[in-house]
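[job 4471] stage=fold_predict status=RUNNING
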Amino acid sequence: MEGPFIRIEDSGEVIALRPEITTIGRGKGVDIRLTDPSVSRLHAEFVRRGPYLYVVDLGLSRNGTRVNGRPIARRVLDDGDVVSFGAARARVGGIPREDFTPEVELRRAAAPELTRREVDVLTSLCRPALSDEAFVAPATAREIADDLVVTEAAVKQHLLRLYQKFRIPEGTNRRTRLANEVVALGLVRPTPVIPTQRPTDPAHHHTPPTSSRRAS
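[job 4471] inference complete, writing structure tokens
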């Protein structure tokens, strides 16, 4: 079979991946349908970019997505990797092997494995700061806690672990440096700001006067 494919572990079925995006889940509208009850209706997607393939967990399942047993939010795949969607497993094949230079390996290593909660914290951290990929200011620990409905202490613990994972040294503007690193690695994308519509107040509607002059 030419091009990337997956082999479903339970059935042995081999399925070719689409040229750009292949959705996977338990729902009827996905490209690859898995019947395991631990799989959500729209669970994840495979994305092809040139010779590269990566898998994205869509965050809609309580059971998450794993690559070789490790929980991921997004991960570039290598030939032979095992991807788990809940309890359902599939092995990836058909990906050309590539000899990476140390410089490329270093860049790949800069993006650590993240838990789903850490991804939530990073998304909340960057949400107010992203506008057309330009930085303003990241969210505070208090704002992240309010957004995720958790305690501020829990958020601070997650941030400490994230500082370690991304090797952000102690000092001023630590949250900003973390957020900049996350955006640079493409782990969080800018989200469009949806303007809040105020309710229409009939009392504030004025009909433009037809004329201020009276006929003489």
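[job 4471] summary: The radius of gyration is 23 Å.
[job 4471] exit 0
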